[in-house]
Design a protein that fits this description.
Rossmann fold, 6-stranded parallel sheet, about 425 residues
């Protein structure tokens, strides 16, 4: 059985399950893998994706940042940290692993370009080809610097943006040596083909063994559910939802005992919601929950009346490629109505329409009407429904996507 070496910034049980799902399913297609990843403390909600693979966790664990001095120090020394992490991981691989055990190297990362540096150096040392899998890219981030910020945050953003420009240049240099690039949305493909024409689309997706529709009877509450990070208002703007709920409440259509918004998100990421001025008027309808293990998510989604996607409009200076989020594909798989707020007016809206999955909301009126329609349906039938385009969503199965990866692996070997 051919084997590849996966070098990645995060691996289950930590967040970012893409490589975990690949390893889970590619053995069915005749492939195995060893994994080298960062020694990382974080969200451990993907324990179920750990199998029999060899996982080597190397390097120091990053310390939490509490003070302005710590944040400045981290930003000012980022390049040294990048080099140190790269050197440590390269040394570990060359000292502990044998090149003859592997057909080639797959490097998977978001914004941490030192992973690409590691793969590039090991590739040269071993004389093995490598593939770069990019889950996120610098081009998709909103422009952070704002003259309205105080001096402290302005300087922090300025330093961070300058560092990202440098890393952007370093990343593009690595693309000259990579055999193939894979990435997660058509928009990402368009951007990365500028540097390497051999770039392929493999979406994020859902695990077909765990995410599928289940009929849940006797729902005592109408639940609008969100599972995931709420990182910034630029990426995820809940305002339309809050205003529509406020209007429903003022019209005496809903009550707080039955109508609930449940947000499963990290405690340190809730400020985007709590600081929203419209939230203060509807907070009695909202419940916050900590992250739960991924094995519990299918039940939570199937027990929901509406599944919430928080997004924002695509703009040249704003967020891009928002169809990438794993939760969207898991929402599709359980076939519950989706409410996307607010619409990106781009690829995500187009996909929701093709899937016939719900509403990608642009206005308050259509948000209000959608909530009212689903609320009335729930009151009359005890549940909500949507006629999903099943053929369309099949392409987002993690099992099918593992086969896409394997087909590329075999093409690399033939070349």
């Amino acid at each position: 059985m051919p084997k590849l070496l996966i070098i990645c910034d995060v691996y289950p049980p930590s967040f970012a399950p893409r490589m975990g799902y690949l390893v889970k399913y590619m053995e069915e297609y005749g492939w195995a893998a060893d994994i080298v990843t960062r020694n990382y403390d974080g969200d451990f909600s993907f324990k179920s994706l750990l199998g029999n693979e060899k996982v080597f966790r190397v390097g120091e664990k990053p310390l939490p940042l509490r003070t302005l001095k710590e944040k400045l120090t981290r930003l000012l020394t980022k390049n040294q940290q990048h080099t140190r992490r790269k050197d440590y991981m390269v040394s570990f691989i060359l000292d502990h692993l044998k090149p003859d055990d592997y057909s080639f190297i797959l490097a998977s990362t978001a914004f941490r370009t030192f992973i690409l540096d590691v793969a590039d150096e090991v590739s040269k040392s071993w004389n093995k080809p490598w593939i770069a899998d990019l889950r996120d890219i610098f081009e998709q981030k909103p422009i952070k610097i704002s003259p309205n910020k105080d001096l402290k945050n302005y300087l922090l953003d300025k330093l961070d943006n300058n560092y990202q420009k440098f890393m952007f240049q370093q990343r593009n240099l690595r693309f000259k040596n990579v055999n193939t690039i894979t990435t997660i949305t058509p928009w990402h493909v368009e951007q990365l083909k500028k540097y390497n024409p051999n770039t392929h689309l493999i979406y994020n997706g859902y695990d077909p063994e765990n995410f599928y529709p289940q009929v849940v009877k006797g729902q005592k509450q109408f639940k609008i559910t969100y599972t995931g990070i709420i990182n910034s208002i630029e990426y995820r703007d809940p305002t339309l939802l809050f205003r529509a709920v406020k209007k429903l409440s003022k019209n005496n259509i809903i009550d707080k005992e039955q109508f609930r918004i449940q947000l499963y998100t990290q405690k340190n990421r809730r400020a985007v919601v709590i600081e929203n001025k419209d939230y203060q008027e509807i907070k009695e309808f909202v419940d916050f929950y900590d992250y739960v293990d991924t094995s519990e998510i299918p039940k939570i989604l199937n027990e929901s009346s509406i599944l919430l996607l928080l997004s924002n409009k695509y703009t040249p200076t704003g967020p891009k490629g928002l169809i990438s989020t794993t939760k969207y594909f898991e929402y599709l798989a359980v076939e519950r109505p989706i409410l996307c707020i607010k619409s990106d007016e781009d690829l995500l809206e187009e996909s929701i329409h093709k899937a016939n999955a719900g509403l990608s909301a642009r206005t308050l009126d259509e948000t209000y009407d959608f909530l009212l329609e689903k609320w009335n349906e729930w009151k009359n039938k005890g549940r909500t429904s949507v006629k999903i385009n099943k053929e369309y969503i099949k392409q987002f199965s993690r099992k099918k996507q593992a086969k896409q990866f394997v087909d590329l692996f075999e093409k690399v070997i033939r070349q």
